[in-house]
Amino acid sequence: MNRRTFLGTAGLAAAGLPHTVGASPASTTTYQEAGRDVPVVEETDVLVAGAGPAGIAAALAAARAGARTRLIETDGCLGGTWTAGLLCWVIDAAGKGGIMAELIQDLKARGSYVPRRGPNFAFDAEIMKLLLEDKMAEAGAGVRLRTRIVAAGVDGGRLTTAVTESKSGREAWRAKVFVDRTGDGDLAARAGCGFDLGHPETGKCQPMTLFALMTGIRFQEIEPFVGGGMEEPKRRLLAAIRKGGFEPSYHGPTLFRIRDDLFTISANHQYGRLATSAADVTAATLQGQQELHAIVKALRSLGDPWSDLAIVATAEHIGVREGRRVHGRYTVTVDDMVRGARFDDAVCRATFCIDVHSTDPGKTKEIEGRRGLKTKPYDIPLRALIARDVEGLMMAGRCISGDFLAHSSYRVTGNAVAMGEAAGRHAAECALANKVP
User: In the chain, which segments carry CATH 3.50.50.60?
Assistant: First the structure.
């Protein structure tokens, strides 16, 4: 199906008009779906797609600004990669105000803020889930979980409708302004926006990582192996895994302390997979599961302090570093990082470095070099959060408009929250004034 046919089909479905797609019923390569009416279940001011760090911030900001707000999430909890993904580690949150600073204070108050040598910190995923649920309820934003956006309705160049699938079947949601915080730019792609994916020369994306919660070890006994931005603990952990007879796919394995007896581990790289391919995500997840258990077996074979090491749970979804980079009204570039760019419409100041996890395991299974580039803290402008090809749509988090190298920096969650908050606030302003971003 070409782009024009897809957009027309999505628009007709969203409008509740009958339509058919595909080839004739006799075709063996396509299936002709019968036309159907899709019920519009809600009309709202701001619809946020995806409840990860950026999506939560966007929904909170929009609702607090007085906009009727709906948050739609594929997983069964709020928090995205923080919770369903078990990435219990926040990077580049230092110096951020607003909702990011608020979350830090609330985590401290709930006893779930774990600093580790530097500005980054860890937290308990279950406490984060409850905290985010409380905040959404207080703000009055509507939440729908276990619901996936599968199509979009565009009228006169403006996004008007998101179409979802869930246990409730196929449903349509209308809004004045949309914020795509799906990570992979799913809503934007279905609305017909242009995007980039992977390295501009090779098309390869950074590898995926399946995180897991670990127990059966004590911080006091394994402290030299616990990382979080430090290289030496990673080298020690790698050596220990190898000593146990297993060669991990990632040569910078990291343990993050949550409590003295609970840790998150990042220890695998699933190479050559695309976040936009369900088959690739499936294969990467299954491979990650197998590898994590092999790593546990290798470490347990060493005896104490690893003899009781066990996996509490692997993540509900695999960690994706790179998906679509949706074309916006400005593209953040590595040149912006090098010159420390400042913008009048800045929404976030990013300080994280170029952080490209190897796209070619034949060359390295660690972090690719900084390419001789010295970067400075740089601004992300609001224009990079506004879709170029469709009106009424904003982005936040790692699917904003940027190049391959800049993306490897701004994609971390401390920046995602700041971007989400700005997108949500601006979306609310526009919706309440009956304007587009």
Answer: 40-204+323-437
